[in-house]
Amino acid sequence: MSDFTSITLNYNTGADSASGATWTGNTLQFGGSGNGANELRWAMSGASTTTPSATWPYITRPSSAPLAITQLWAFSSDASGQKVATYDGTNSHSWVLRWAWDNTGTFAGTLQFSAFGDNTHSTPQAGTQPPGAHNDAITNGSSTDTSNTSYLKIAAYGYGVDASGNQQSPTSSGGAAGSAPSSFTGTNGAITTTSSAWSTWQSAQGWLQYIANGVIPQATTAGFWYWTCILYTGPNMTTSTYTPTITFQYAYS
Amino acid sequence: MTGVLVRSVYGTPLVIPEAVSYWAVKLQSGKWCTERDIVVDTTHPMGQRPFDWTLDLVGTGDIRRIVELWLLCPQTRFSPAGSTGRLLISERGTPFQFKVKSTSGFSAARLIHAQRASQVIGRISDKVTGDCLCFIWDHELEVLSAPWKSNIYQFGTWREGIAPLGTLSQEVLGVHLS
User: How far is B6 from chain A (nearest CA, A)?
Assistant: First the structure.
């Protein structure tokens, strides 16, 4: 089949449940516009729905141990965004983010996603601080803070749509997304999702450490693949402004 | 239609594209089909659509009548005349074709939209193991690979920046290993 007309990222501004989640209108398109649009932004405090990218508040690096960033915001344009209500820097919520695809395309291979320092998709330099060209402190991680895994952790639920066309969604009442990760969590290679279950948490470190879907979703079937994340920082992270990209790879015929 | 005629060398009705790679197949009947062809489809909003590998080759059974599979790649600074990959198909159920896209975003990176598609044609060389021989047009690098070996059960990566593709869908691609 030809390519999908639409693959996007949805974020939840409602409650952590099937009935309470709010996805309508909460969509980010792939590819930043270069002026602050279509961005996920993390903060500890000081952010608002109208804070432009250029004045986004700094996060103070911890002095002793790694900690999780507690707020995630989604901005469809530079100074127009919303807080992702169910992100709090823990694994305690299931209805947080989801990949959304329409019914115009057919996957021909496994879906994968992860994060890179930028969209050159250069392989992160695991554990290297300060980062070099085309990698960043977040995806590189630190030997001390993250055991050379990325500071960004991800987990995904089931297959999204299974090979028979059934949508797989988290427990309707929400709750914990798998077992709590730490800043050290990460496994070389792919963590592959299993049917109707939260994956093991994984480090988002390019294609060194990433999540892969356990099946190829049914052809021409729209679906949602639910996932969540936690961004850590730590005393050994080189301070700067980092702009990693989240990358979704797929094959189609 | 613009582009450099491949006909002069290979006696085909194919042309080198100006921008986007495409596949072409020759059927046992001698008929050529390419994804640049247009077919009538009353279910499509426009009433017509491009010729599709899965719908029009796999869906009609013509996939089993392919005798040649081509990948035609655009003119680039590395290959001013364009480039082609050609696989002769002697066994039914062995040719396949797909594209790979890495799409990125959601950061403040001051780089515009990154959607890149590479295109792969292949032929199963061992139906028992799933080993295959491929040509890959890498859209980002603007090069056509040399014949490259992989496996449809664990399709690998050909360079940094592309994740191993894992298992390919035999149903979608029309591969028959029995």
Answer: 24
